[in-house]
């Protein structure tokens, strides 16, 4: 009997419980500025963060696991499927879907921690960040080693580096960071600025990847037409979101982070694969055409990408073939994107079989398991 191929899903999300912050932050100190869920007797629930309200439906992209009776949207906490919010229920959903291990990203905190990056009070920002990071260890990682926790961080570089050290000491295996922090609030340096050296240096020293999740910078995306239905709006966002990665990857390959930190590993979750060959081919063309080697760039952009960077896929079939031919298996990861509406759950095993038809067994093993296992120290 053929052994089952191990599968490490590198991009799944947890929906934070309403008491994540209310239980871990001082009511006396922060009052109603603490992130909390406000649920009226009738109508839609809203998350309130530092006085700013955002609908639960907007933050809770759990469409893959929703019951049909919800109409495809979670507007109240009772609509949220257990597998989206509870670690033990999640393990059962992973078993159903053939997933051995799962790398976790937030939702309410933002897919890259950007919700708290918008808070202008750095003390409150840090308190919110630390509450999430502690909760993920206590309520998810402690339940099973199959969960791979990743920390979010405050935007200030020194504070971010300190939180990375604290979080990794507690068990976090990766760092989630917004790719365009200056979009989040005023007086924040560009991510290429030397000010961020403590972040890259700390990640490189500790051997943890830094991850730039797509969708954290909506400025890179066109706003869906207001006449679209909720499901059509979400479908549009899912289609256009990965394309923004071409901008992010191009910048990171020219940044200090990759150029001057050769052991730093960089992950682009929910990136898909269709654009990566174009981006690297264009990058190498410009590298040659503009004479960048004479301007201090020792390696062309394609070589830097292959040395340090990873993209992730979940539905790709034609794009996988193309990326394997022109990029190689060593820089590709796979996920289910559970519980988001774009997820392949509960049919990920069949989706993988379709995508990997005709793919060499060694490449399949690298993409589904060993690339990610090496990144996260499994």
Quick overview of this protein structure:
With 378 residues, the chain is of the alpha/beta class. The chain is built from 17 helices and twelve strands. The strands form three sheets. It has a six-stranded parallel beta sheet with strand order 7-8-9-10-11-12.
How would you explain this protein's 3D organization?
- The protein has a single domain, classed as Metal-dependent hydrolases (TIM Barrel, Alpha-Beta Barrel), CATH 3.20.20.
- Helix 7 packs parallel to helix 8 (157-170).
- By secondary structure, the protein is α/β, with parallel strands linked by helices.
- 40% of the residues lie in helices and 11% in strands.
- Strand 8 (174-176), helix 9 and strand 9 (210-211) form a beta-alpha-beta unit.
Question: What is the overall silhouette?
Answer: globular
Structural class: alpha/beta
Radius of gyration: 20 Å
Order of helices and strands: EHHEEEHHHEHHEEHEHEHHHEHHEHEHH
Instruction: Assign a percent range to the helix content.
Output: 40-55%
- Please name the fourth-level CATH homologous superfamily: Metal-dependent hydrolases
Biggest pleated sheet: 6 strands, parallel
CATH architecture: Alpha-Beta Barrel
Number of strands: 12
How many angstroms separate the termini? 26 Å
Strand order of the largest sheet: 7-8-9-10-11-12
């Amino acid at each position: 009997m053929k052994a089952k191929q191990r599968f490490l899903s590198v991009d799944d999300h947890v929906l934070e419980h309403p008491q994540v912050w209310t239980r871990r932050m001082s009511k006396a100190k922060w009052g109603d500025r603490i992130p909390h869920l406000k649920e009226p007797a009738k109508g839609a629930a809203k998350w309130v963060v530092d006085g700013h309200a955002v609908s639960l439906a907007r933050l809770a992209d759990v469409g893959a696991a929703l019951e049909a009776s919800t109409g495809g949207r979670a507007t109240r906490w009772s609509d949220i499927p257990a597998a989206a919010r509870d670690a033990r229920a999640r393990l059962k959903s992973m078993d159903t879907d053939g997933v051995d291990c799962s790398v976790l990203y937030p939702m309410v905190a933002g897919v890259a921690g950007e919700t708290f990056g918008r808070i202008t009070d750095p003390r409150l920002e840090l308190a919110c960040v630390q509450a999430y990071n502690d909760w993920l260890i206590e309520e998810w990682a402690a339940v099973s080693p199959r969960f791979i926790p990743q920390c979010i961080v405050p935007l200030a570089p020194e504070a971010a580096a300190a939180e990375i050290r604290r979080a990794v000491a507690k068990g976090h295996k990766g760092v989630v960071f917004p790719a365009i922090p200056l979009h989040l609030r005023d007086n924040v340096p560009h991510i290429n600025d030397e000010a961020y050296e403590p972040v890259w240096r700390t990640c490189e020293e500790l051997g943890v990847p830094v991850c730039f999740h797509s969708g954290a910078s909506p400025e890179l995306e066109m706003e869906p037409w207001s006449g679209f239905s909720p499901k059509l709006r979400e479908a549009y966002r899912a289609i256009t979101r990965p394309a923004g990665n071409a901008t992010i990857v191009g910048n990171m390959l020219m940044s200090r982070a990759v150029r001057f930190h050769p052991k730093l590993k960089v992950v682009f979750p929910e990136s898909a694969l269709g654009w990566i060959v174009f981006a690297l081919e264009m990058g190498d063309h410009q590298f040659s055409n503009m004479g960048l080697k004479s301007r201090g760039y020792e390696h062309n952009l394609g070589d830097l990408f292959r040395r340090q960077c990873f993209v992730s896929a979940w539905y790709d079939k034609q794009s996988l073939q193309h990326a394997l031919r022109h990029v190689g298996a060593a820089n590709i990861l796979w996920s289910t994107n559970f519980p988001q509406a774009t997820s392949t759950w509960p049919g990920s095993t069949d989706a993988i079989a379709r995508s990997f038809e005709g793919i060499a067994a060694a490449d399949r093993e690298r993409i589904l398991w060993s690339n990610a296992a090496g990144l996260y120290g499994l």
